[in-house]
Amino acid sequence: MDWTRYCFRSLWALPAPIAAVYLALERAEDYPRWWPQVRSVTPIDDASGVVRIRATLPYTLTFTAREVRRDPHAGVLEIVMSGDLEGWARWTLEARGEGTLARYEQVVDVNKPLLRMLAVPGRPVFRLNHRLMMRAGRRGLARALRTV
């Protein structure tokens, strides 16, 4: 097992139609407005930007995100990442009643030296940190969608 590789999956039930959720998720530069752990998204060009994340634990992850798929008809947004995290992440949206189910999938290798060094003993804590971050993101986006 590669202890520095993580596979995450989250499901967010959101109180808005797919079009509204997709619009919110495709505007990564707005994430810091509703997702507290996303500290900044600095655009590089139309398809990439530098992202800084700091969740509950006292470390910041910085990576470049580059869009590889933007398909509003299929409800899919996908990026590749390089930097402290190397890998990919994808949002897939589907209608659920009057709302939307947003599926987040991520497969990354951690490159940050401290996290690599603590990979084995820290793994359960790092996974919990990610879970807490995703919970805060879901809550923040749901709140933002209610005010639109």
Mind sketching the topology for me?
Elements: E1 5-14, H1 18-26, H2 31-34, E2 38-45, E3 48-53, E4 61-71, E5 76-83, E6 85-96, E7 99-110, H3 113-117, H4 119-146
Antiparallel strand pairs: 1-7, 2-3, 3-4, 4-5, 5-6, 6-7
Brief summary of the model shown:
The protein is of the alpha+beta class and 148 residues long. It has helices spanning 18-26, 31-34, 113-117, 119-146; strands at residues 5-14, 38-45, 48-53, 61-71, 76-83, 85-96, 99-110. It has a 7-stranded antiparallel β-sheet with strand order 1-7-6-5-4-3-2.
How many runs of DSSP E, i.e. beta strands? Answer: 7
N- to C-terminal distance: 44 Å
| SSE string, helices as H and strands as E | EHHEEEEEEHH
Number of domains: 1
- The fraction of residues assigned to DSSP E strands is over 45%
Please report the first level of CATH classification, the CATH class. Alpha Beta
CATH topology: Alpha-D-Glucose-1,6-Bisphosphate, Chain A, domain 4
Mean pLDDT: 96
Give the low-confidence spans. Answer: none
Count of discrete alpha- or pi-helical segments spanning 4 or more residues: 4
The biggest beta sheet reads:
7 strands, antiparallel
CATH architecture classification name: 2-Layer Sandwich
Structural shape: globular
If you compute it from the alpha carbons, what radius of gyration comes out, rounded to the nearest whole angstrom? 15 Å
CATH superfamily caption: START domain
Task: Provide the spatial order of strands within the biggest beta sheet.
Answer: 1-7-6-5-4-3-2
